[in-house]
Amino acid sequence: MTTSASSPAVKGTPGSPASSRPGLLAGISGQNISLVGALVLVLVLFGVLNDNYLSLSNMQVIAEAATITGLLAIVQTVVIICGGLDISVGSQAGVASVVSAMVFTTTGTNALLGMAAAIGVGLLIGVLNGLIIVYGRVNPTIATLAGLAAYKGLAQLLSDGRAQGYVLNNDVFIFLGRGKIAGLPVMVWILIVVALLVHLLLKYTDIGRNIYAIGGNDTAARLAGININKYLICVYALIGTVAAVAGILLTARTGSGQPTSGSEGLELKAITAAALGGAALKGGKGGIGGTLLAVALLGALENGLTVQGINSFWQNVAQGALLVVAVVIQQRRSGERAVGLPG
Q1: Which among 200, 201, 206 has a CA at the least distance from the CA of 5?
Q2: pTM attached to this predicted model
Q3: Were both Cys, which of 10, 61, 78, 243 would link to 92 (CB 3.0–4.6 Å)?
Q4: Residue 215: which region, alpha, beta or left (left: phi > 0; alpha: psi -120 to 50)?
Q5: Can you tell me the distance from the alpha carbon of 192 to that of 292, in angstroms, rounded to the nearest whole number?
Q6: CA-to-CA distance for 190 and 195, rounded, in angstroms?
Q7: Could you tell me if 21 and 203 are in contact, meaning their C-beta atoms sit under 8 angstroms apart?
Q8: Segment (H or E) for 180
């Protein structure tokens, strides 16, 4: 049975995915309390090693650097809850960054038109990913792995492999990249607004309940009348749109359109943050609060390693190790039998 995306939600019952949806900062126990402890430990450790680490200026640097990762991690959390995955988010941000700068420079420095073009391209890419997954019947991991290469190549083709344009002669881009509201960087406010909106969507709407239901048990969700195909396409469209916003902020932060620099590797950070934050890679479980804590942890760790002059390659090692740790914790908590071992 097929209905529209506004069909009645699957009501949560005790122990069901829909009934276990966490609040934005709720559930500060278990995995989340471990994240808080790890974050405090990292802050204290690097604060002792470097007197400037805990300074206000460096905290703002950490927050600004974590914003782009945070935006992608938020939407990555949504698609993981829905039972999918998107490995191409970094490449999508790269395409959007290039488009925003190139349209800006070729239209008489029209910042809003450049941003609108970037968001439009991001939306199209997201819808394309959703259509390939749904109607091409391609596994989300394979489809978006192909997208990772394809969109990276597209960004390089559009830009000839070089940074494009210069946007820091425009007040709008300057405001986005370097402005502040009530003492907080504008970029951080954008992250807060997106996080709050997505949290409200997941927690307080039928759409959110249905997303959890699809990830928890897609067969039951289909029998309940949820149009899974439409939900998947819309979720990937959301990813493309938010990835475009991240690309615009990347342009504003660096001063030009970046085909790969600044966007390469963001997919690993986003997936790691979502998994560390409690999003079950099998779907049906997760929340924005845990993801934001994980983003803060990754940002604090990366900055700490940088200020200590530690080889940046170790940051990749740390991210990979954290992702493995997050998945191991999920597997142990689920009680699933280890591969090749007796039950």
Answers
A1: 206
A2: 0.86
A3: 243
A4: alpha
A5: 10
A6: 8
A7: yes
A8: strand 180-181
